[in-house]
Amino acid sequence: MTGRDGGAPIGPIGNTPVVILVRPQLADNIGAVARAMANGGLFHLRLVAPRDGWPQERAWRNASGADRILDALTLHASVAEAVADLQHVFATCPRPRHIIKPLLSARGAAAELRLLAARGLRLGILFGPERAGLDNDDMAEADALIRYPLNPAFMSLNLAQAVMVFAYEWWTAAEQPVARVLMTNETRIATKAELENFLGHLTRALDDSGFLANAQKRPGMLRNIRHFFQRGEVTEQELRTLHGVISELGRPPRLLD
Amino acid sequence: MTGRDGGAPIGPIGNTPVVILVRPQLADNIGAVARAMANGGLFHLRLVAPRDGWPQERAWRNASGADRILDALTLHASVAEAVADLQHVFATCPRPRHIIKPLLSARGAAAELRLLAARGLRLGILFGPERAGLDNDDMAEADALIRYPLNPAFMSLNLAQAVMVFAYEWWTAAEQPVARVLMTNETRIATKAELENFLGHLTRALDDSGFLANAQKRPGMLRNIRHFFQRGEVTEQELRTLHGVISELGRPPRLLD
């Protein structure tokens, strides 16, 4: 995909959320997503395991000049890899499921993401594959879920329409006043890779302890643990403390001397 | 298009704005528009002079089950015909032009249309053809223009994305409290056909008077007159008065007896 002219200019980029398409099926839709993004001032696109591989000429043909977004996108093997450097990740979830996670409207999510972006956090938003949507493991990677208020009797957005609504809300949210005061901490919000590292540490410790010995229950239990740690914003400092806790708890009891 | 099963159920219909696609080019887009509409609780679709004729099987294939909307849509030869029975018509206008008409955001328009719908008015919203958009004559048929707040450096929605944003705002507006008190008048807002009838009367009177004798200036002058009368809500009673005024002015001066 070299030698392109990069398409139309698309405006200043800044700290805007990364759009992450999880297992997208159709290259046409990936192109239409890029177009929708550019309309709403979103420029960073990542693909997780696109079904038909990448690049696909059809995507550029469907992007209406938002070529720069397609030229610059990155490919990832897993959701975990795609969010590793991000600090706050939202997942779109058209059908409500029984997951204990904050649930936001598109408007609420856009307002919150604007606040987080103003604090300099690196943000992402996950969109699931056509038809199926995100699965439970995908959603476990997110800090909060987004559900659009739409006609419950007919809820069937295509991928680009779903991105369009979010991109539109993202753009519109910039026109609303920011009400909350920005936090300035001594520490910083952990990246997803740091959190992942901690969850790996915790999982090993739990495996060693025999806590996860029931093979049938193991995936569900791990998912619940993940959900818990994703729910709030964990700081890098807190994670270091938690690492210490796990290491300490996992050690064989010390003998008193 | 008989013998269809009508697709998925799409919820209660009620007094919702009519979506009017003006000279749409691609049947795929018409189907995608129906899908977007159903998501936002819009059900009435009209087509003005679709380029490739109608019906087109591809539209149904692209509607994702919003078949009822396509089954029930009506075809019209002109914008004037498509809006004849409506009382308030908005036009989407991506690029600002020099037209003296109220200009609303998508959110503002949705809120206003909810208020008008609650008063029982019959409403419509015009979407222009792919690429070109509505022309000046199309916009002259509208009471107000809608412009979406989107990235000015890259403003290129496809037709279904444009309808999606409006449908989303329409649905979301129902969740906001209605602030204004509903008007109850002795009379009612005129239909577009009644307004058209009046404008025809006025045009004939102006032609007879020689006011429109300059053939080159005639279309622009008529458009300006139309814009003026579309700007506010004209009631049926006011139109009857205006008819009287024109008839009276057009009559040869009476001789004193």
Could you explain the architecture of this structure?
The structure is a homodimer of 257-residue chains. Chain A starts with 17 loop residues before the first strand and ends in a 7-residue tail after the last helix. The first copy, chain A, is α/β, with parallel strands linked by helices and 257 residues long. In chain A, strand 1 (18-22), helix 1 and strand 2 (44-48) form a beta-alpha-beta unit. A 7-stranded parallel beta sheet of chain A has the order 3-2-1-6-4-7-5. Chain A has 2 domains: 18-173, Alpha/beta knot; 192-249, no CATH class. Chain A contains 10 helices and 7 strands. Chains A and B meet through helix 1 and helix 7 of A and helix 1 and helix 7 of B.
List keywords for this structure.
homodimer; 257 residues; alpha/beta; Alpha/beta knot; seven-stranded parallel beta sheet; 7 strands; globular; disordered N terminus
What's the quick description here?
Chain A is of the alpha/beta class. In chain A, 42% of the residues lie in helices and 11% in strands.
CATH class of the largest domain in chain A: Alpha Beta
The CATH superfamily of the largest domain in chain A is identified as SPOUT methyltransferase, trefoil knot domain
Tally of individual domains of chain A: 2
Order of SSEs of chain A, N→C? EHEHHEHEEHEHEHHHH
What is the number of E strands of chain A? 7
Greatest contact between two chains: A-B, 36 and 36 residues
Largest sheet of chain A, order of strands side by side? 3-2-1-6-4-7-5
Percent of residues in helices of chain A: 40-55%
- Determine the number of helices of chain A (DSSP H or I, runs of at least 4 residues): 10
CATH architecture classification of the largest domain in chain A: 3-Layer(aba) Sandwich
Chain oligomer state? homodimer
- Low-confidence runs of chain A: 1-5, 177-185
Structural class of chain A: alpha/beta
Strand content of chain A: 5-15%
Specify the overall morphology of chain A. globular
CATH names the topology of the largest domain in chain A as: Alpha/beta knot
Radius of gyration of chain A: 20 Å
What is the CA-CA span between the terminal residues of chain A?
67 Å
| Biggest sheet architecture of chain A | 7 strands, parallel
